[in-house]
Each structure stands twice: as structure tokens, then as C-alpha cells.
Amino acid sequence: MDKKPKEVVIVSAARTPIGKHGGYYNYLPAEDLAVLAVNEAIIRSGIDLMKIKIDQVVAGMIYIDSMSQQIYLPRNVAVRVAEKFGDKENLRVAPGKTTLRICGTGFQVLADGFDQLMSDTENAGCVLSFATENMSQTNLIHQGRRKKESVWDFEEAPLRDYLMEGFNHNLFKTLMPKTAELYGTQTGITRKECDEFAYLSHSRAIIAQSKQWNRYANTGSNTYLQGIFTLDAVDQLGNAISVWRDEGTKFDISLGELAGLRPMLKPDGLVTPGTASQISDGAAAALLMERSFADKHNIPYLAKIKGYQFSTVPPEIMGQGPVPAIRDLLEKLKMKKEDVDLFEVNEAFAAQYLGVEKELSLPRDLTNVNGGAIAIGHNIAATGLRITIDLIYELKRQGLKTGIASACIGGGQGGAVCVEIV
């Protein structure tokens, strides 16, 4: 009898509300955000950590040298969550690694879990993937080398902004907004179109949040954004935090306000503070299993990961990344664009998103239906996982089947993940 091909399913998934710079999570480290997201994902899965062995923990974070000991991120989160559940054998002793693919890191944590579960040489049945970022807590870095004569003394050097360092691709002398300007101009995008799209992003987010599930109000099956959980925590200053919605969405925004903003790079430029994604904080987590393993243990699941893809573009127009990533993924899966019910494409910049939409002829009414990073925020490492989770729950809400989540990635890449409601 032929062995059934392996498949990977997402058993459960959850994301924090996204905080804006200096907002909800200003004093809540990325590790704490990750613990809360992982804890929620495990609760939603309904699994007993005393019985189900987690074979690997895959963590994603970009600004790993930010406040707190993030170098130990996957193990710290595993141990802290295990303590919450009284688990001393499975999650607590699970090996962990941190993976990185800049803005595609949230996809990479899924890809790493997928690959381990699909591998013929592995007997893994369960992988925990999470990604987290607190951009509010990125700090200044002293880049002085250690002196030859003493390991404890340093040469003099300037302090550099750790956050801003990542926004400039030094090898190609190009800022991320500059790549969006160039790509948007090449594809014929106008400033007016960028302002209108930014307004649409906020408008969609406002509607979704007004119908959103949260612990204190809506609980019906047709409520929106069910990937979000109500976050209750205490920050480093001892302040109680209880939040249920994304903080960056502007409920009083107008087209006139957007049109009046000064371009960031040049007088006739496309990128303004209102048409760029927001610097943000937040985390997301998902529990992945090999499908037969989940079936054997009678564990229900949300969706199947059909596949993923990473592709490249010239670094100077990195915003084009989703174009080859989505095309290559569709070809790999032997699918057509028309087979996809919903798309999520990260809104790094309006000019960048609109260029992708134009090149791929994406149906706007089926893409980013609940708003995107312009209105919600782009907590960089977690974004790919965040939009995948939002996509899964929106497919379920609408009774649809197949979705693709995608994002451009600094350095000239694009990433995409295809999920199918099972």
C-alpha cells in the first residue's frame, strides 16, 4: 500500500494587537510579546503539552540586539511558556533556533517548520513557529571594536541608530523608501493614487475593527480579525496593559490630510509618512503539525500550508518582490491566479503595493480586505506570520478556501505562502 504523501497543517495561530511606536508596548520586551502569542496559540490548539511533544521551536526576530537577552529568544520563550502549563518534559526541552529573512522572517518561521515536518529524514510531528519585534525598543549601537590589548576596552566610534541602520541597504546606497519611489515611478503610480490607497487601508481597518472579535464584546462566528487575542500583561514599569485592537489605525484620517503631507525624499515624491507602513511592535505564533500526526491524535486544524516561495528582484526595486514570488509559487503549485480566493500583500509603501497590484492585476476587492500595514503597522519580523494568520481567519469567516500571503523583502527579495482551509 502506497504511503500517503506528507502534508503540513496549521493547528492553531494567534497574534497580538499591533502597537504603534511608543504606544501599547513601549515597555514590554519582544520576548514578553512572544510568550503571550505562543501561550495563546497553545491554548487555542487545545493540546495537552504533557502528552504532545514539540520537536522544534522556530523563532523569528530581526532586531535581536534590542533590549533584553534576545539572543536566547527561542529557548527563553519555550521555557517560560512551559512553566505556564506545568510542562517539564515536552516544550521545556524542545530545541530552538532563531531564523532571519528581514521582512520575510514571519514567512521563514513557517517555511522552516514546513521543511522539518515534510523532510523524509525527520520524524518530527509538531513544530512551534513564532515571530516577534518591538521596534520601539531598538536602541543606539556603539560600533567600536574591542582593543587588541584588552578585551574589555573599546576603540572610539559613533553611536548608530540600530533601527535606521536596517532601512538603508548600504551596498546599493538605497533607502527602503527610495526603492518604493523608483518602483512606483517605473510602474506609473501617482501620488494621488498613493494617498487614495492609504486612505482605503485605514478605511478597511476601521470597518474590520468595528466588527472585530474581542474578549469584551463580539464573540459571533462572523466577527472579524479572529486571529487577534485580547492581550493582558504587565510591562517593565509595572503598568497593567489590556488591549484588543491594532493601535495604529487612524479613525479620523482624511484624504485632505494625506494629500497635505510632505514627501519624504523629494518634492514630487510618492512616499510620505501617510503612505508608508508604520513602525510597530507585536508578535504572532502558530503551531504546525504533520497532518497524519494531527489526525492520529484527533487534533483539529485551521489550514494546510500548500507551499511557500522566496524569489529575487533587483535590490533597487525591492518592493517588486511579491511579483515573482507569487508567480513562482503559483507555477510551483500548478495553480492559476483565479484559483486564489484572497490575497494579502504587505503594504510596505503604497507606491510599492500599487506597483505589485498593477503588475499582477490583483483584484483590489480580494486583496488586503481588512487593511494593511499602512493602517495596521509593520512589526517587521512578525509581519509575514501576522498577515498569514489574518488571511486564514478571513478565509474561514467568508467560507472561502485558498489564500496567498506575500511581502517584499529588503535586499531584493519577495516571499509568499499559500494556505488552504481544510
DSSP helix count?
Answer: 12
The total beta strand count reads: 18
Question: What's the overall geometry?
Answer: globular
**What are the segments in which pLDDT stays under 50 over at least 5 consecutive residues?**
none
The CATH architecture name of the domain at 170-214 and 306-421 reads 3-Layer(aba) Sandwich
By CATH reckoning, the class of the domain at 170-214 and 306-421 would read Alpha Beta
Largest sheet: 10 strands, mixed
Q: What is the CA-based Rg, rounded?
A: 21 Å
Report the CATH superfamily of the domain at 170-214 and 306-421.
Answer: Thiolase/Chalcone synthase
Order of helices and strands: EEHEHEHEEEEEHEEHHEEHEHEHEHHHEE
Q: What is CATH's topology name of the domain at 170-214 and 306-421?
A: Peroxisomal Thiolase, Chain A, domain 1
* Straight-line distance between termini: 25 Å
Assign the structural class, choosing from mainly alpha, mainly beta, alpha/beta, alpha+beta, or little secondary structure.
Answer: alpha+beta
Integer average pLDDT: 93
